[in-house]
């Protein structure tokens, strides 16, 4: 499908200036009507970010939105046909949406895979303690963070508590009107001489990321435990839980507050979790708007990417294989592992993940000629990894040419990008795991400033171009 073609003869009537590659700015390519579409699209995105602060809430939003657009759980379908729209989910933390294509499944699928998890502070199994008359929660950070960014900012608590009887209790504190917030305290500069003399990585220890949660002691309680007991009393009154219930809880401290417009021109979105929920939302809207795809289109929303894609809800699990098998057994009388393997061998994918944009405050970490820029459109990243391209998918030339052609044919503004200078650092995505199944795949997503910070920045223009990319890919 992606064989290259040899060109014969000489290029005739070609101006020298037409031979050069020119970067484009999305805002300079769009008219007033499209500009309004960009801003309107960003409003729905900001709402999604504000509502979806955890993997579970993201999955709920995805499923609810999909059902409102005619998608139904696969368990309700005995057989499938072209045009059917289905939902496949598992464990409340991973979900796939699919539209059955006009061609048979044996011709492969068009997959866009993004991840719904984001860096955060998780509560430990025994989090609650009292010290110096204050109540605190112990945390263990999840994913790659710069610890100092999580100090002295308002934090909210989101997640679930599973009681011993199996009852699941939803917890949301800090993002509703009138809610209190929490914080991790920092040392005042007047007394921080020793702290400020340390290297940045050593100045803030993971065990110091303790959440301040209260300070009123229980009346007639023991001095050393009275604050802790009062907190337990408040939690029991609100949620009916005891201290032991924390052991079977998933509680995440995340930045409090909504997604914001950034800039006097409101051209950017600032919010927590845009890595990778910007690609989650844009690929969700892309498949919802995909019209009669030729191949079966699948939007995959996966968990655990920030900690290596491990576990049964991560990309290294078998959810994708099982999801496509759920489709296969409803399309064919006989379906087996070999059929699944052959499908993946003929399939194409976009690993929908963000990349670093050039930051004028920190220019030295990126090689500008091969770096992505805000407002430059959706980013194709041929490889990620570290140093000598370790732990990466290195997309082949034929497939990148196919993606380029698809973008150009649909007048989508796009650019290329790398995740830092050679030997500067690096990172990974789910692309290499998708390719190991047999897919042709390349990373394709939105450039960000302040990636993995409590407030990340994305251009509304790039967000919209990513949506257009995923929508057209599903129909390519």
Automatic annotation (TrEMBL):
GO terms for cellular component: cytoplasm. SUPFAM superfamilies: Aminopeptidase/glucanase lid domain (SSF101821), Zn-dependent exopeptidases (SSF53187). GO terms for biological process: proteolysis. Its EC number is 3.4.11.-. Gene3D superfamilies: Aminopeptidase i, Domain 2, Zn peptidases. This is M18 family aminopeptidase. Its cofactor is Zn(2+). Belongs to the peptidase M18 family. One of its GO terms (molecular function) is aminopeptidase activity. NCBIfam families: PRK02256.1 (NF002600). It holds the Pfam family Peptidase_M18. It comes from Desulforamulus reducens (strain ATCC BAA-1160 / DSM 100696 / MI-1) (Desulfotomaculum reducens). It comes from the Bacteria. Keywords: Aminopeptidase, Hydrolase, Metal-binding, Metalloprotease, Protease, Zinc. The keyword Membrane does not apply.
């Amino acid at each position: 499908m992606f064989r290259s073609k040899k060109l014969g003869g000489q290029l005739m009537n070609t101006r020298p200036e037409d031979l050069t590659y020119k970067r484009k700015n999305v805002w300079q390519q769009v008219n007033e009507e499209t500009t309004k579409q960009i801003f309107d699209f960003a409003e729905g995105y900001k709402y999604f970010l504000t509502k979806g602060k955890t993997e579970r809430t993201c999955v709920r939003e995805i499923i609810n939105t999909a059902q409102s657009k005619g998608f139904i759980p696969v368990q309700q379908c005995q057989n499938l046909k072209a045009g059917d729209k289905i939902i496949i989910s598992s464990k409340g933390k991973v979900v796939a949406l699919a539209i059955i294509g006009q061609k048979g499944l044996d011709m492969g699928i068009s997959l866009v895979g993004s991840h719904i998890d984001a860096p955060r502070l998780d509560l430990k199994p025994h989090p609650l303690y009292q010290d110096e008359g204050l109540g605190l929660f112990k945390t263990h950070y999840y994913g790659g963070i710069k610890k100092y960014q999580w100090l002295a900012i308002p934090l909210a608590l989101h997640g679930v508590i599973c009681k011993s009887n199996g009852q699941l209790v939803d917890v949301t504190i800090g993002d509703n009107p009138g809610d209190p917030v929490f914080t991790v305290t920092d040392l005042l500069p007047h007394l921080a001489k020793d702290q400020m003399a340390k290297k940045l990585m050593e100045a803030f220890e993971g065990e110091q990321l303790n959440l301040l949660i209260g300070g009123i002691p229980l009346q007639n309680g023991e001095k050393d435990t009275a604050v802790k007991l009062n907190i337990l009393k408040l939690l029991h009154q609100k949620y009916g839980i005891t201290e032991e219930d924390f052991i079977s809880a998933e509680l995440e401290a995340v930045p409090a507050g909504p997604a914001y417009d950034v800039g006097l021109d409101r051209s950017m979105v600032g919010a927590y979790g845009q890595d990778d929920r910007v690609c989650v939302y844009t690929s969700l809207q892309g498949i919802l708007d995909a019209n009669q795809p030729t191949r079966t289109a699948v939007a995959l929303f996966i968990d655990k990417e920030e900690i290596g894609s491990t576990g049964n809800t991560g990309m290294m699990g078998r959810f994708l294989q099982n999801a496509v098998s759920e489709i296969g057994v409803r399309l064919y009388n006989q379906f087996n592992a070999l059929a699944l393997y052959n499908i993946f061998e003929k399939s194409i994918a976009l690993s929908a993940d963000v990349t670093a944009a050039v930051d004028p405050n920190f220019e030295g970490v990126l090689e500008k000629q091969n770096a992505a820029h805000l407002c430059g459109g959706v980013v194709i990243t041929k490889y990620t990894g570290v140093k000598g391209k370790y732990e990466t998918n290195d997309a082949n030339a034929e497939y990148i040419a196919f993606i380029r052609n698809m973008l150009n044919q649909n007048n989508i503004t796009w650019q290329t990008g790398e995740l830092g200078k050679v030997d500067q650092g690096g990172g990974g995505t789910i692309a290499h795991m998708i390719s190991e199944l047999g897919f042709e795949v390349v990373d394709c997503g939105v450039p960000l400033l302040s990636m993995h910070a409590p407030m990340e920045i994305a251009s509304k223009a790039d967000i919209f171009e990513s949506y257009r990319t995923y929508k057209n890919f599903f129909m390519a």
